[in-house]
Amino acid sequence: MPAPYRPDPVDYLLSADAIRQVKARYCRYIDTKQWDRLGSLFTPDCRFEGLGSAPPGADVATFVAGVSSRLGPTISVHHCHTLEIEMTGADTARVIWAMEDFVEFTDGSTVKETPGSKGFRGYGHYEEEYRRENGRWRIAFLRLTRLRLDPVPVDAPAPRMGQRQASTDWLESN
Fold it and tell me: Where are the domains of the chain?
């Protein structure tokens, strides 16, 4: 059995930070409905599993089309935290993110994952592979696993939007 890859400590820290940035953008782009930017976070050959918005093995275009169609009429909040990261090579890594999401449909739809509800709060993990190409880290494989789903009842109070909505180009404007 080959010895595990041992990255340079500085490259490890820089790579881990870059990977965290990619995942933060993933959550923000989904929640602020920036579908045109979402696809840029993935390698062209990325594959997806465990998602209600794309079939297993879907490619990037199918995933973006599915998630934009499915989550377009929602208020969604995605949080990823407490990552575990293992560098598997100079330009590859495996990561597990603890995750929590809240999805509420605003168009009267009910949800197949939690029948008879207008949304859900979910808990689980993302299992992902990342690859650095041309100096840029991107997601090469994404799997969502679920530990728990709690329904948002149809008769739950109507959502109230925050006082100030997100600036979709806050970072990009500098």
Answer: 9-153
